[in-house]
UniProtKB/TrEMBL annotation:
Its EC number is 2.7.9.3. GO terms for cellular component: cytoplasm. ATP binds at K19, T46, S47, D48, D66, D89, G136, H137, T138. The active site is at C16. Coiled coil: none annotated. It comes from Clostridium saccharobutylicum DSM 13864. This is Selenide, water dikinase. The record marks K19 as: Important for catalytic activity. The gene is selD.
Amino acid sequence: MSRNIKLTNLTKTSGCAAKIGPSILHNVLSSLPKFEDANLLVGFDTSDDACVYKINDNTVAIQTVDFFPPMVDDPYTFGQIAAANALSDIYAMGGNPATAMNLLCFPSCLDMSIMHDILAGGYDKVKESGAVIAGGHTIADPTPKYGLCVSGFAHPSEILSNSNAKTGDVIILTKPLGIGVMNTAAKAELLTESKVKEIAAIMSMLNKYAKECMSGLDVHACTDITGFSLIGHSYEMASGSSKTIEIFSDCIPIIDGALDYAKMGIIPEGMYNNFDYLKDKFTLASDIKQELQDVLLDPQTSGGLLISLPERNVKEFLSRSETFTSYARVVGQVFDKGDKHIIIK
């Protein structure tokens, strides 16, 4: 047993790039029967971030689960990122996390201190969120994986979905793109140590702070950007809302270096899965380069929130966001439904 084994060498794919491709998942889920329950306010019909179940007229429960293999070698940092990613779904739905349970797959070849550090990273992020960890489940597995099952609560009027964008809304993104590309470059040992730390800091930042910036504003729709990419999650928002979203490609926050590595072909497998599913669902301006398209389709691990809100609220949101990030910016606008749900300008 050793602490010298690199966690990323124990997995073929990293983070949210390890998710099953959207085309396969859609085909399987669409063939399964649907549960009917009057108290189930949000299920998986609109590909939303979590399920919402009514407890009474004043309280709904929000539940989500997420786990994945490591995208960094430091076990504590891996635990932080995995926890932040799982907690994000609660924030994207407008709620606050309350309880969490660990999900851990752990190889017998690794020292138990690595298990401790993974869990400690998760504990610290859950503590930062204000929730508590109350148990979990572990199994032996050659590929390490970690995440959380999270429950949160909210008033029914506070719930946000990804399918209520309104014509005229402005679209805001709160974290930069390129995480999947940069994690792939890191696995190939192409990044400096300082760059690896920069990417880890982005992934481990809780979307709690972006959610708090929405307080009191007329937010119509929200989702978080993870393995389905910016185009994919924008498509879910646009199709669920029966709208078209125009994405302003020159306004997208992108991690320095991501376009260069994408141009070199250093892109995760998940990008190809996303493109195969989405290729007929968006149009692309003729002057947009291949590497930018790849980044727009790049699977993100613990990405930012994608928020649809009236233009009158944009200045206030961006002003509030300056307290925790320099990345939040306007990246698109909502229009009446056109020929395609997504237009990249």
